[in-house]
Amino acid sequence: MSPDLERALDRISRVRGVRGSMYVAADDGIVVARLLMETVNGKAVAALAASLARKVEGAAAATGAGRVRFLQMDAADGTLLIAPAPRDLLVVTLADPRVNVGLCRFEMMRAAEAAA
Amino acid sequence: MSEDIRALSAVLAADPASLVYVDLAEALRRRGDLDQALRVANGGLARHPEHADGFDCLGRIHAGRDDLPRAREAWGRALAVAPDHLGALRGMGFALYRAGDARGALAVLERALAGHPADDGARRALGTVRRALGMESAVRPADRPVEQGARVAVETAVPAPPSPAVVPATAPGAPSVAAAGAAASAAAGAAAELPPVFRGFEGATADILLFDDRGLVVAGGLGGADGVDVSALAAAGLAGVSSEAGRTAQYLALGAWTAIVAEADRANLVLAPVGPGALLLVRRDRGVPVGLALRMAERAQATASAWLARQDA
Amino acid sequence: MSLVNFTTREITCKIVYYGPGRSGKTTNLQYIYDQVPDDRRGRMVSLATQTDRTLFFDFLPLDLGSISGFTTKFQLYTVPGQVYYNATRKLVLQGADGVVFVADSQARQLDENIESLQNLHQNILEYGVDIRTVPMVLQWNKQDLPRDLILAPEELDDALNFRALPAYAADALHGNGVFETLKAISAEVLRKLSQGATGRQG
Amino acid sequence: MTTTVVEPWTKRPLTGYVAQSSARLVVVMTPAGQVLAQHGFARAVDLMGVAALGAAIIASSGALADLVGEATFGALFHAGQRHGIHLAACHMPRGSLVILTVFGRETSIGLVEFFFDEFAAALRAAAPADRERGPVLAENFEAELGQSLASLFGR
Prior knowledge:
Chain A has 116 residues and is of the alpha+beta class. Chain A is 41% helix and 33% strand. A five-stranded antiparallel sheet of chain A has the order 2-1-5-4-3, with helices on both faces. In chain A, strand 3 (68-75) and strand 4 (78-85) form a beta hairpin. Chain C has one domain (3-201): Rossmann fold (3-Layer(aba) Sandwich). Helix content of chain C is 30%, strand content 28%. Chain C is globular, with a radius of gyration of 16 Å. Chains in contact: A-B, A-D, B-D, C-D. At the A-B interface, helix 2 and strand 3 of A face helix 7, helix 12, strand 3 and strand 4 of B. Strand 3 of chain A pairs antiparallel with strand 3 of chain B, so a sheet runs across the interface.
């Protein structure tokens, strides 16, 4: 993993409640770089997050909202955050339900820039 | 043809769970045996409730029986599973156009062409709808297929649904009563008939949409660019998002999902479940903070939930 | 190991044409392919070099129709003949239900025939299989060549066929003996099934 | 499109895998290229060609792994313009199986890989113990074989 990407993921993981974050190839749904707690199944997160992002992208286009810049899925036992990044990548973060989304979003946007 | 039907029937008899039911239903439809086609398609879909090709075929069968509401429902369900399904987009465009919602048809067909630029059927249908709306008389250059060579393959791969271009009864040169009446106020047309669940909310009929998990609009409405109503298309795509979110939450052991927020170039979207089988979309301007949009969505969710409970009572 | 499905009553068997380089293994398959109607065969797959020498294998699926109430399908493979392709030859041999050994009848090819036959025994042994349990027939190909260039079937029998296996004189290019060879190996393979051999079943 | 299985215990795992991964074609085969189950093929003879090539790729990459001192390579993945293929071995109680998946742009290699792992586990759980096999064909099969081959060769 390149040091820039590693640093970017490290900054995301310092946000309290973050279980892991990764760069994912958007079209392929596979992990490019990751920093995860041992309990997190990176393969599953990458595949499912990329698929969800693709479906949301299609639906957002249908509503006339344009391209998606940040995506948040809240669930009872966790939060999934996705930010599209250059070079057809996604920055994906899995976190606890009450995580500080604003802070995660800020670090994920920085991580997206680091991929340029 | 009857040889095909015999062979396909034999395959389906040997393996009732086979997806070959679509080919069989389609062959029957083409032969004009619509009742039998309907039975086969419904039988297959009972086993494969998430099969977009099956719903697309069902849509064509209903359209052949002049049952447009059911055709529209079938294509909506196909789009809920596969938002970019070409046949279902073309079918939905046809159904909306025939229902007098030319602007809705325009939105759907533009989406079909955006995803499948080489598709002649979608391009012809789009031209027809644009002329009906008094837009331009010719197809815009940007809509011409990128690769001429791709045309034939696409045409043969997609069994042509009855497209507006080949339905002379409603052709725009001599608009039918239904088309003429509704096309003028198409944007409001679809939404105005829906129950006023969100009265008092900002954007009650153009930015808040209540729909079911099969992609069918229940209440509210969603306007697209130029005031085009995109409710049907959006509901279909968003129902697909909902099932994908359900799967994601299940495999990642996240429990039930409660909201999806998408910050996009022109708007922020909040999608939330409203009791079993119903979903809500709230769209807010990009300038409205996400936190505020979420709170609005919560209020709309409570209103929708109460209204749905009253309907069920 | 033949595949038998008792539910749908189907049998699928793998038959490998083995032998030295240029002995006519691919020619056997090509002739069969040309003779069999479209609806009874699949596409013939040939992984060959630019000079049409088999690189990995040729493959031809055949539908024999119903035998004893079982829909019977054969998968015919050839192996590359050249000595240095042994790794791929061994891979193709894996799971074979029967072997046709195609010998080149030319007298000057006798050593190559012997070497290839030994190589067959060696490769089968390495899969932990006793060659005596593998259905096998021999084919003396190129019997159409001038008499002074080739060995007679009896001479080839003496040199190569010490187990007294069924052997057929052939001219695969023109189809002579191809059908008889296929029929013989089919019968050997199916006979083993009729005797209750072990294998995979559904 | 059809799903057919030679061994009934493969059906439920295969159907689940196809639904979850949105795969277009799936072939479950032995390392020798014998098909145990498939989804998406209309003609058995077309399927056999695909199976032969899939098994050959796995066999040759296994042999390559051996040559470079690697125990085994994992899954193989090729991306094309319209289709991708995923090819991997699945270790079973009675020997390996080879599974070939062909998928389109409506899904991704990530989803295929993720659900493949589930599929492999479901197959292992469903596989029955090996059984002895009795005689398959009647003893007098040879006359029918002769007729079949004769009709095949137009004789």
